[in-house]
Design goal:
- It is a single chain.
- Helices cover about 35% and strands about 15% of the residues.
- The protein contains 15 helices and twelve strands.
- The strands form two sheets. It has a ten-stranded mixed beta sheet. Strands 5-6 form a two-stranded antiparallel ribbon.
- β5 and β6 (about 210) form a beta hairpin.
- The longest helix has 17 residues, at about 145-165.
- The chain starts with a strand and ends with a strand.
Length: about 400
């Protein structure tokens, strides 16, 4: 029995500022993304044998309520909540169902209906999952609010102090991603900004020079992917458009998250590096073989750190990729052609599936004005603090 896994259909909504589309609730988001993915695959919902559905802000069994918009066939539906990596967790579970022979066709669906402003704790009568991380980082650096930008910006400051990167490097990452998003009709923002405009935007964390335009926004939206076995692909004649998941790894916090006593470890660097290494070994590739990458730029400093975690640059040299133009069109890799989280938006449960959609379109040659020429291998990176890091490698089935 083959244990190969293929993406045969993808779909997503446009990501929106919370509340911008009046009356747009999560079942409608899921219906839009799920219908698009099924249509892309050319199959009916009745072919789907199980579903994994991700969201962070919602009551239990919201996943069932969302999937019921597509059909009510009695299939297993698993609800997933794994912080900012929730969408890829749904993808991971659907892929495992295929790889393990439990299903020939599975749906991964993610959505989020968010509140405007900084993320807030859902429960205040119990310990927060990130408290250990926050306490560890506060032992290294002065605490600041809001918490999420403080955590990642502190890791950026650490990189500047150790390796000589500058606030301008982080601003250049944001400039690149906003510029890329101009060509993405699904992006929450499609505006290009000058470096000066980015640097002069509302300040979020002064020690790094982190401004609002260097941070991902809260967003509403949904993404979906239909996964299938090799047998299903062959039986339904889907090989020409199928994209194979040739490597995928999920890594949770390691002891070094806390024992390394570095800001980068606390915000997930070691998890990401371990996941990347696992995937390179699974797929038989290295970073030099990759053409296009979607990575988790929740804040600009995390993109720079992730360059190094993915092995695109040696430790301490990620900012040199920015200086050399290595991460945009015409460079060694195109990173975040969608605009990334910074400009495309970040509805937590949908982000990982939006990355899957972008990688699928790129490898099919269907990415229109943002197409990376002759893309053959794609890599996606998605991380949630608390923690879970994913790296996924894709390649067209017919190559």
């Amino acid at each position: 029995m083959s244990n190969r896994v293929f993406v045969v259909g993808v779909g997503m909504t446009k990501f929106e500022k919370p509340g911008r589309r009046e009356g747009w609730d999560y079942p409608a988001m899921a219906l839009e993304a799920g219908t698009a993915a099924l249509s892309d695959a050319g199959i009916e919902y009745s072919k789907v044998q199980e579903a994994a559905v991700g969201f962070c802000y919602g009551d239990s069994t919201s996943g069932q309520r969302a999937v019921y918009e597509l059909g009510m066939t009695g299939i297993p539906v698993v609800n997933v909540n794994n912080n900012c990596s929730t969408g890829t967790t749904a993808l991971y579970l659907a892929a495992r169902a295929i790889r393990g022979g439990m299903a020939d066709c599975a749906l991964a669906l993610g959505f989020e209906k968010m509140q405007s402003g900084s993320l807030e704790a859902g429960y205040t009568d119990r310990e927060q999952p990130l408290l250990r991380h926050i306490d560890a980082l506060a032992g290294l650096r002065d605490f600041a609010m809001p918490v999420a930008p403080w955590m990642f910006a502190t890791a950026g400051v650490e990189h500047m102090e150790r390796y000589g990167s500058t606030p301008e490097h982080h601003a250049k990452i944001a400039e690149k991603n906003h510029r890329h998003s101009v060509n993405n009709p699904y992006a929450q923002f499609q505006d290009a900004y000058t470096l000066e405009e980015i640097q002069n935007a509302k300040m979020v964390y002064e020690p790094l020079g982190l401004t609002r335009l260097m941070c991902s926004p809260t967003s509403d939206g949904s993404g979906a992917a239909v996964l299938a076995s090799e047998r299903f692909v062959d039986e339904h004649g889907l090989g020409d458009r199928a994209i194979e998941i040739v490597g995928q790894s999920m890594v949770t916090d390691l002891e070094t998250t806390f024992t390394a006593k570095t800001a980068r470890a606390i915000v997930g660097y070691d998890m990401s590096a371990a996941a990347a290494q696992n995937v390179y070994e699974q797929a038989g590739i290295g970073p030099e073989d990759v053409d296009v990458i979607e990575l988790h730029d929740c804040f600009a400093p995390n993109e720079l750190l992730t360059y190094e975690a993915l092995g695109l640059a040696a430790e301490g040299e990620g900012h040199k990729l920015i200086d050399n133009g290595d991460t945009t069109y015409g460079g060694r890799w195109v990173v975040n052609p969608s605009g990334g989280l910074i400009s495309k938006g970040h509805p937590l449960g949908a982000t990982g599936l939006a990355q899957c959609a972008e990688m699928t379109w790129q490898l099919r040659g269907d990415a229109d004005a943002r197409q990376v020429p002759d893309a053959k291998v794609a890599l996606a990176h998605n991380i949630g603090l608390g923690g879970a890091a994913f790296v996924t490698a894709y390649r067209p089935a017919n190559r």
